[in-house]
Amino acid sequence: MNFSELFKLSGLLGRFSPDGRCLASCVQYRLVVRDVSTLQILQLYTCLDQIQYIEWSSDSLFVLCAMYKRGIVQVWSLEQPDWHCKIDEGSAGLVASCWSPDGRHILNTTEFHLRITVWSLCTKSVSYIKYPKACQQGIAFTKDGRYMAVAERRDCKDFISIFVCSDWQLLRHFDTETQDLFGIEWAPNSCVLAVWDTCLEYKILLYSLDGRLLSTYRAYEWSLGIKSIAWSPSSQFLAIGSYDEKVRILNHVTWKKVTEFEHPATIANTKTIVYKEVEKSPSVETERLSFPPTRALASSLFSTQSKYDISQVPVSLQYIKPVADRANPKMGIGMLAFSPDNCFLATKNDNIPNAVWIWDIQKLKLFVVLEQLCAIQSFQWDPRQPRLAVCTGNSKVYLWSPAGCVSVQVPVEGDFQIVSLSWHSSGDSMALLSKDSFCVCYLEREEV
């Protein structure tokens, strides 16, 4: 494993381009585009204000920079650095901005969700979509880029509109059987739209492309409901994470529950492997000590190394009782992700913040638990193979694959707390992001 030097960053805004050639990062109001292999700066753009969001176009030719405070979006071209585009929403304000799948239209959501404005970079034409709903995930594109679903709210009822992305014509408009719709997400095969309700109502609805209700699933009533969902890459399974600390798996044939995964504080099954992170103080050979010690040696002297031990079951994990009188209590399944080969599902139960659970989807059983010393901040699967990268807010990155588990210290000076990470599309490198800096980690092929 090799690591680059640290580069400045603000707002956790570091993104690989879809074609994998460039890496865009933001420092206050500057957008820096680097070559992925050399990390040399290819382009440097200056925006009108501090950047709060960036997104690459699907063909990696343009970068969108949104400045929500100013209600402005600026678009930069990699091929023509002199070309520039500024979209000002004016008094309508701006709360969200994204690319359409063709990379030539920009969708801006105005303040108070009054409308979505569709701006064309090619014809400079403008279209409007009325009544978008203010919810966590209100716009969803199919993976093939042909259709867009928008959650709407009018006359105190929830609706879904499906648009054709080529000409923004309305294809279908239908009401949903939700109390207060919270999010929508297409299956990867673009055939089924999952719609789920507010956390006060456990309900998930599955609609076809033409607006037919295929199925409704409710696990229980009168308790906090759905917290997170994830489609498997093959579209055969839908995983639903709930506030009751369980994941329920629905199948794509009957949309009935196949199984449910519980996340207890004690792991008793002898077939489950529990990797426990343990700290070990670095051993120093006295002959190597020179005073004052060199900077590289000093940083290795005082940083604690860690490794994984395999724990004997039963294992008790650190369980945190949620504070019942506070808003957004830390409880339930907050993170879920399927591996790219559909074989594994990684989950995090917010009541047990230091553990990652990895489930074998073929056997529908718990396979591995990683017990970390610090709370899990983020995890993400390698896009090419079943390999999971985890970060916990310290200067280490953790990798799991079916072959085993490894903890790697990032060799940087000073305080580098990794709170987010993202894989390169090739799976050969990843960006490790802290609040004010980032580095790139390069992996050899047979690493783990």
From TrEMBL:
The gene is Wrap73. InterPro entries: Centrosome-WD_assoc, WD40/YVTN_repeat-like_dom_sf, WD40_repeat_dom_sf, WD40_rpt. GO terms for cellular component: microtubule organizing center; MWP complex. It comes from Calonectris borealis (Cory's shearwater). SMART domains: WD40 (SM00320). SUPFAM superfamilies: WD40 repeat-like (SSF50978). This is WRP73 protein.
